[in-house]
Amino acid sequence: MKQNLEIYNQVDWWNPKHSLKQMVPVRFDYFTKQIGNLKGLKILDLGCGGGLLSEEFAKRGTEVIGVDISENSIAIAKTHALENNLTIDYKSGTAENIPANDNTFDVVICADCLEHVDNLEKVIGEISRVIKNDGMFCYDTINRTLSSKITVCWIANRILRWQNKHLDVSEKSYAVHDWNKFIKPVELYQLMNKYDFKNIEVKGIQFAGIKNGSFKARIGENIKIAYIGYARKK
User: Fold this and answer.
1) Per residue, what are the HEC states of 155-215?
2) What is the pLDDT of residues 178-219, one digit of tens each?
3) What's the whole-model pTM score?
4) 7-233: what fold?
5) Contact (Cβ atoms closer than 8 angstroms) between residue 121 and residue 191
6) Tens of pLDDT, residues 70-112
7) CB 139 within 8 A of CB 112
8) Which residues fall within 8 angstroms of residue 89, CB to CB, at 6 or more apart?
9) Which of 39, 80, 132, 220 is 20 to 30 A from 209 via CA?
């Protein structure tokens, strides 16, 4: 089943039970440990959604630009940032055509995004274009394996449909994830190397149960389902 991203136009991003909201501490803790001192950095949150990670970085003294294809999500992110007195520059745009100048960012964050794009090579090329020399590219995505097909496409997609059954999305066409768009680590490494990135580390994102109807995860060594890591621009 091909992906249908309409859910991202309607989802309640800041609901504490939202699975992506539950993932914020896992992602943020990992990325910040690799980045180090955040103060004064210029960060791009690519595929920012409703601003979940953008706000965490903005609270730590970074200059954050958030970009997402969903205009509804951008509107939600802007409103939430305003309500919490945070200055974040949100823009509507695609990962294939990032609305930013060359050599702009110290760090690019791309979480829960790469497995949804239409042209992965163009996305990596664009990230390389907008990031400074020696800048950091922090990412997480889903591996294309039998384990991910079973866990994400067959199980997680069904749970997501149930969690969001109140939304105006056709049951027959609703699949947040398309297994054919998942990315084997070696494929990502090859593209990063082509566009002047050196991968430094990769870790697994491992399922850690369900609590209050939401997925729990932790960082580990098993990358068969999903993985997280970072690279530097050469």
Assistant:
1) HHHHHHHHHCCCCCCCCCCCCCCCHHHCCCHHHHHHHHHHCCEEEEEEEEEEEEEEECCEE
2) 889 999 999 999 999 999 999 999 999 987 666 665 667 889
3) 0.90
4) Rossmann fold (3.40.50)
5) yes
6) 999 999 999 999 999 999 999 999 999 999 999 999 999 999 9
7) no
8) 63, 64, 65, 66
9) 80
